[in-house]
User: Fold these one by one.
Assistant:
Number 1:
Amino acid sequence: MRVSRLMLVTLRDTPADAEIASHQLLIRGGFIKRVTSGIYAYMPLMLRVLKKITCIIQEELNAKGCLETLLPQLHPSEIWQQTGRWNGYTAGEGIMFHLTDRQGKELGLGPTHEEVITKLAAETIRSYKQLPINIYQIQTKFRDEIRPRFGLMRSREFIMKDAYSFHSNEKDLKKTYLEMNDAYQNIFKRCGIETVSVDADSGAIGGAESREFMVTAEAGEDLILISPDKKYAANQEKAVSKAREASFLPKKPVEIRETIDQKSIELLCEKQGFDPSQIIKVILILAMTESNELQPVLISIRGDQELNEVKVINEISKHLKQSILSLKLIDKGDLESYSLNEIPIGFIGPDLSNSFLVKAKNIRKKFIRFADHTAANLESFVCGANKLNQHKVFANWSLFDEKPEVVDIRTAQAGERSTHDINQMLIEKRGIEIGHIFQLGCKYSKSLGATFTNDLGIEEPLWMGCYGIGVSRLAQAAVEQSHDNSGIIWPLAIAPFEIVVIIANIKDEIQKKLGETIYQELVESGIDALIDDRDERAGVKFKDADLIGIPWKIIAGRDSKANKVELRERGSGNTKLLDTKQAIDDVITEISRSK
RNA sequence: CGGGGCGUGGCGCAGUUUGGUAGCGCGGGUGCUUUGGGAGCACUAGGUCGCAGGUUCGAAUCCUGUCGCCCCGACCA
């Protein structure tokens, strides 16, 4: 390809609406153009990158026996209703774009394809003899993100590889899950990016176990916790750790203490001289269930600990055996609107009576009571007395009739001890999630009636796994991980071109002829080569080549007369002046070696 | 949706406080000079100042409404 024909428009100034390096560089290099919020056009250079990534994914998945398909993007609402996701995905803050067709039928633009694929599986798979099956597609997905940002990192239209596997039993699912884990490691390694795989929450998709693949970068939206020995790594949403020991509080008869206006742990400690770990913080939450009911939840956690909302949602959902759409921490305004005014916020204890809910409007009349282990383990503690301006000191759990369910709902933090080895202190990093693998189990197959007949002739629901890679996000994450002040440094395997031949001065016939010859030879040797044949000053061509991140340059310049050219590596900046033949041989060797 | 900020030639910005009919840098075009790290000089094209109302003799500037974009939080590949 010739740069003069490449439709290449690079920007010298940093675009005002791009915040992070990768987003700025992709725009400055002319890789992407924003069409509207969260929606981008992939320009020719970008498409080449995406195709290279896609190709690697296809090779690795095909090697594992996966089958490529292409599923529709418009989905009928019925199948989403059958899995109970239509409401959650379209109503309120739902992320599914949806529309009504001319017959008045409701359709959604696919944000993910569990429903469609499971329906297909239901119609196609009859016997255990057809299993296992692993089908994937590489396809544009649509999600009406609450807040699109950072270019391709969180866009509303993006390219994703999604795979779905079907099995006759859980053991077989786990086997494929491990194979996919393996395939993912290979894919990311071949793409030339460094990833960490972490324990993850499975979120709205549901299911048992899941792992995320993270590109570590400052701009990452997730916080991950890692043990220095690398044996433990988890998304903070899911992470567990050993909380530090609480400060000792002697066991004594319980006393009521006046604590006027001391509503926060901070104030209470300041005025009464307690340590936060001696106090039980009681948090009141309203959970919106998928059946649109509001469930009040009373949570006890040690005062020095932070609540992990993802864990809370999962526990409530387990307790009620249904999905939770959202959580709301109760504030003053909510007390009014739900007629909960009598609850002494700031002074509530784990034993807050259900009678406070009697007059409440539109919410269930009984608390779910949870206590985090950190709170449950305290033998003597401080907590609210359920009366304004009063706390109990030297309280203990035997005082309360209503016993909470003991669960893990605290947020693990960096600096805490890992549970697998208490000598390992967790460290934190930020990560960009580019892949996620899930063991879904039978959730979707059950609701869509996707069954098969087992070897005993009995009909059973299919076991399912699902496996995603954000292809367009991966491309940008690669840039976030690999760039410098001059621009992008593409890993060779996914670079739009492997090398650019730069003719320093196009008006110099010798240089021009030499450059063209080199270009021809590279192309004939199967190298993805670009030739910069523009009538520009050499400096402009160097800057552009650096900006768009081509891994290698061959420069036909002032030494062309002596049949010498420069070979330069983008990443290291290493430069060698070589005979033309030598330069071509060297770079072909280097490129083939890294492939 | 809540909080913050911004819309002025293709891009980056000034001008708005104090109303007087639009300017700078980059980019584009032409010519001459230059030619190894985003060249110099000269000429040149390009803007209903997001949009719609209003106030005024007069609005980029003041008022009202509206649309769009970005950042922080909930969402996630």
Note: The longest strand of chain A covers residues 427-441.
Number 2:
Amino acid sequence: MEIQIRLNPNLYLKDPEQSELGRNIIKHSIEMIHELGFESFTFKKLAANINTTEASVYRYFENKHRLLSYIINWYWTWMEYQFNFYTGNVKNPVQNINILISLLVFELDDQFISSHISKDKLYNIVTSESNKLYFTHHVEEDNQARMFKPYKDLCHRISLVFNEYNTSYRFSHSLASTLVETAHHQQFFARYLPSLTDFDKRKIKTELKAFLSHMAFSMLDNKK
Amino acid sequence: MEIQIRLNPNLYLKDPEQSELGRNIIKHSIEMIHELGFESFTFKKLAANINTTEASVYRYFENKHRLLSYIINWYWTWMEYQFNFYTGNVKNPVQNINILISLLVFELDDQFISSHISKDKLYNIVTSESNKLYFTHHVEEDNQARMFKPYKDLCHRISLVFNEYNTSYRFSHSLASTLVETAHHQQFFARYLPSLTDFDKRKIKTELKAFLSHMAFSMLDNKK
DNA sequence: CAATCATGATAGTAATACTATTATCTATAA
DNA sequence: TTATAGATAATAGTATTACTATCATGATTG
């Protein structure tokens, strides 16, 4: 199944999905950010890599922060899309929460193709770079430009599932954002700062899932 | 009570605590990072602000990333110090966990003076910038240089308290790091991206404390 | 009094993060 | 078929950042 994800036009100057060069920019950005880290990634290096010029890249994105934003918003949109797809027929909230957790640890087989995007590398970028989007001095402007909408939508969607499970749960939004962040952070920690976790790097997905579901259900079941 | 916090010499080229200029660098960095955000903060601006030269600042810190690291490690060290101080006489793990949570939301009165450091601004910097220390491409080298030791020590200390409360708890480290991160993130979200939380900005400390203690005790009490 | 150490003053470099201008090439609409 | 609009390439240039190097000065210490 091929999907085309449409993102908020605020995220780009020129839609990268609409041209070969644009798709190339996305594809190679993902590869290069994965390889170099966001800090060392530059438009100049990217341009050299795909045999175009810096100026051409600037026609698509104002700067590299916006480009990262595009990529990560693509991820959130895709996640919500998947979540809706997998939970569409399932009426059982427990099962829906488990599906969510599987998605968050990136365990489910992907049903959607988007040829120029490497999902593995994208996931990797999200775990290590996504915080940089909002922990800035310009959060408020960016927020007004709706740059975090896909993330907020996903969290809202998750909070609804929590409230299906426990109608009177007071912290559904905070739990949603915490669960998402924790999934990514703990994965990163397990790999690079293992003493901050209780996981074995080799069994990370299984153990992290256990932790996340322990977290979600402990909190949702606590009637105090 | 005046405290002097000694940090790992890997964090600086020349100990900023040992000179007027050094202390000035720390003091004004905190103010400027708070005001400009880390991205826009530069050694040039800092030097201009305290009437010294860029070159002089470089004699203390290799670069601004290292300076941020110094500041944030100061915070973690100070936090652990406080935690030990407040829980030293208290044998009750429940109470210790509550003390921890109060510290994490920055609610307790500070017993320690360190004249050139503005604690409020420091806390603010930690909530919005601390992730940038480890979410880099050079985590591993930095980790080997022991740049995260104070944070890891604090989390370990917290995990011990969790295990005092529940001897057989399997996720004490992950819960510790999650709780710390969550305290900061939710605070930031409540302020700038409130739809990711369930908190009222004006009652943030009370409500966040409720959430964090709900989280900690739900998880620690869940015997499944 | 000599030595050394910290800071200041000044200069310079490579890389980054852009902006601007003009030329070329291509698709399509008149 | 030709005109033209639109996209990209080629090239150049600027301000700022993130440093490094050198030398002078002034304070401290042995």
Note: The CA atoms of residues 5 and 86 of chain A lie 17 Å apart.
